[in-house]
Structure formats: structure tokens, C-alpha cells
Amino acid sequence: MYKILERVPDETLYTFVKSLTPDTTRNFYNFVGRNSEGIKAIVEDGRQNFFVQLYDGAPITAYGFLKTKVGCPWIVTFGLVVADNYQGKGYGKLLLDFMIHWAKERNITKIWGSVFYDNEHAIKLYKDVGFVCEGCFLNEVVEGSDKFRHLYSIALYLPMRAMSGISNWSTNPQWYIERF
Ligand SMILES: CC(C)(COP(=O)(O)OP(=O)(O)OC[C@H]1O[C@@H](n2cnc3c(N)ncnc32)[C@H](O)[C@@H]1OP(=O)(O)O)[C@@H](O)C(=O)NCCC(=O)NCCS
Between 146 and 51, whose confidence is greater? Predict the structure, then answer.
């Protein structure tokens, strides 16, 4: 049994962050370098936070956020991370489905994010729910002294309901990528 919360005490999120292994933070780097003040800032910076909490388990099992893009209220950026011991048990999919539903209810038409090119589990999950690749950012992060990691820019396009008057809403990035 689980519940999805939209607010937890800052310390609860901080404990969750501290529990993540380097392998996980390597793929979800929003928390990297944040102390407790930095975590507090995440909670208070205007994003919509979601937490999966088990009734009989760890205080937080998964964390996700949606954040409205400045100047573009129809777009949210997203992020998702599951506690190491709970990965591969369906909680990431569960929270992502919840976040997509939340966005649909609010007439969000695009959920945008990025994922490392070698993060196979995350890529499979995102593709399964309908995300497409919009392009990529090469050499975004360097690991050690010689290994670069690239990022895919990914998006899920939701049905457009509230933006009447706009006729060229596109859901096919490939068409543009090929013509670039
Ligand atoms: C990526 C992540 C959010 C997925 O959440 P999860 O709870 O582990 O994944 P789920 O159990 O919901 O599985 C969803 C799909 O992902 C794949 N998957 C996830 N973890 C997997 C694992 N350890 N091994 C194999 N496949 C896995 C599965 O194919 C699954 O699809 P299926 O249901 O058809 O089998 C989670 O593993 C995580 O937090 N990873 C580290 C941080 C990260 O990469 N965040 C995303 C940054 S963009």
C-alpha cells in the first residue's frame, strides 16, 4: 500500500537524498551538491513536488517534480527518482503516471525533460509511456577526466485542450530534426 504526497518536511526529503547511492545520483543529478538549505530551496522554488510513501516501508520511496517553464505555462519540466532499494518494483511508473494525470488535469500540453543517453531503464520507462526524443545535447557532463555523457531531450505531448487559436501545434520532432 502506498500514498502520494505533495508535501513532506524538508528533513524527510533531505534524508531521502542522503540515502541515494552514487549510481542513482549519477543519473538524477538535481540533488548533487545540495545541503539541507539547498533541499529546502527545492521544496520552495515553485515546483510541484510528489512523493511516494509506503505505509509499511521507508519514509519516501520515490520523488518526482513538475515545474512550469518560465513564460510557457503550457510546458512543465519533470524529474523522477526512486530510492535504490525500491527501483524496478513499479514505483517509478506509478509516480510518472500520476504526474502525467496531474498535468493533463491542468491543461499542460507538454512534459519536457532530459535523460542521459546510457540510462537504459529510464529511457525504456519514458518510451513506454509515450515520450519521444526531441534532440540531444552532446558532451553535457564530463565524468572523470575523459568520458563525456550526452543527454536526450525528451517530451510527452498531451492533448491540446485550452490553447484555442493556435493551429500548428506539432507532435513530430523528427520532421524538424530531419530538416535542420
Ligand atoms: C529510472 C527510474 C526512475 C525508474 O523507476 P523504477 O521504479 O525503477 O522503474 P519501474 O519499476 O516503474 O519500471 C518501469 C520500467 O523501467 C524498466 N526498469 C526499471 N528499473 C529496471 C531495472 N532495475 N532493471 C530492468 N528494467 C528496469 C523496466 O523495463 C520497467 O518496464 P516493465 O514494467 O515493462 O518491466 C528509477 O530506476 C531511478 O530512480 N533510477 C535512478 C535515477 C534515474 O535514473 N532517474 C531518472 C533520471 S532521467
Answer: 51
Q: Kindly state if the Cβ of 83 falls inside 6 Å of ligand 1.
A: no
> Cα–chain-centroid distance for residue 143?
22
pTM, two decimal places:
0.93
In angstroms, what is the span from residue 87 Cα to ligand 1's centroid? Answer: 6
**How far apart are the C-alpha atoms of 11 and 36, rounded to whole Å?**
7
Cα(61) to centroid(ligand 1), Å? 13
Portion of the chain with pLDDT greater than 70, in percent: 96
CATH number where 164 lies: 3.40.630.30
- If one counts the domains in the chain, the total is 1
Q: How far apart are the first and last CA of the chain?
A: 48
Where in the sequence is the domain holding 171, given as residue range(s)?
A: 2-179
Q: Kindly report, residue by residue over 116-134, the tens digit of the pLDDT.
A: 999 999 999 999 999 999 9
